[in-house]
Write a structure and sequence with these properties.
Blueprint lengths: L2 E5 L2 E4 L3 H14 L3 E4 L3 H9 L1 H8 L3 E2 L4 H9 L9 H10 L6 E6 L4 H12 L4 E6 L8 H10 L4 E5 L4 H9 L4 E4 L3 H5 L8 H5 L3 H8 L7 H12 L7 E3 L5
Parallel strand pairs: 3-4, 3-8, 5-6, 5-7, 7-8
Antiparallel strand pairs: 1-2, 1-9
Helix pairs in contact: 2-3, 2-12, 4-12
This protein binds uridine-5'-diphosphate.
């Protein structure tokens, strides 16, 4: 029975990276609509303010702790939940694919997903990129985009539309494959955005690096402050549970 830790009502399973990879490969093998989301502190705060979004996140097959804030919150509860950035998990999933997965890339500015796909094809030649679609299509194209993704018959769908759009897109369209919400991953894979150096990542300061390099992200700092006040500085209110996941 999986154990979970609850952070602002978000239920994170206490699984290692290897366990998470095994779960993801099993979901792909099952060929049914499934979802993995990668919340950070900002996403957790949005969920704390929106019961509908919280429900969407908790219906995922797996939540991975993308941000250092989630790991620190877990530590306060006495549990170890190492940070597992979605972008690293996604690459590990491609690297350990037991067969040539078909991968569809949805999101980011026009041209970025295609460039990211080319880079992933070079790095993981056993993966087939079965389609790319940017994340700025007109609203009246939504149905056609979802239909094109189904027709491409992906095993795996990476969705980079930003949060909450990417999680809501996955929950609404339920493509018959494993879909993973990955924020700005295509921007990094395409080379449009540089990721923080390893040392900065290890120090848990990737959020600061990204804020300094993309000042538009300054608007996200209040959510981080609110998360710190609610979860990191308040008395311990959350808990670790042994429970079977409700779906
Ligand atoms: N994006 C998109 N469509 C939109 C809004 C955003 O495709 O309508 C993309 C945006 O171009 C970027 C990604 O969504 O590639 C969000 O990246 P961000 O760095 O904000 O995500 P984070 O990694 O912080 O979750």
């Amino acid at each position: 029975m999986p154990r979970y830790t609850t952070i602002l009502s978000l239920r994170f399973p206490l699984v290692s990276k290897e366990d998470a990879l095994a779960i993801a490969h099993a979901l792909i093998a099952a060929r049914r609509p499934s979802a993995i989301y990668t919340p950070n502190a900002e996403i957790a705060m949005r969920a704390a303010r929106s019961p509908a979004f919280l429900d969407t996140l908790n219906r995922a097959d797996l939540l991975l702790p993308d941000g250092i804030g989630i790991s620190l919150a877990a530590k306060r509860q006495g549990v170890t939940l190492p940070r597992l950035p979605g972008i690293d998990f996604a690459e590990a999933l491609l690297a350990t694919a037991p067969r040539p997965y078909r991968l569809f890339l949805l999101g980011a500015r026009p041209g970025i997903a295609v460039t990211a796909g080319r880079m992933l094809s070079r790095r993981y030649p056993h993966i087939t990129i079965c389609g790319c679609q940017d994340g700025y299509y007109a609203p009246d194209m939504a149905h056609a985009v979802a239909t094109a993704i189904r027709a491409a018959e992906p095993d795996l769908l990476f969705v980079c539309l930003g949060s909450p759009r990417q999680e809501e897109w996955i929950a609404v369209h339920r493509p018959p494959c494993l879909a993973i919400g990955l924020g700005g991953a295509f921007d990094v894979w395409s080379g449009a955005v540089r990721r923080a150096p390893r040392a900065v990542q290890s120090a848990g300061m990737e959020w600061l690096w990204r804020t300094l390099r993309q000042p538009s992200r300054l608007s996200r700092l209040p959510a981080l402050a609110a998360f710190s006040a609610r979860v990191l500085l308040s008395p311990r209110a959350e808990r670790v549970e042994n429970c079977q996941k409700e779906r």
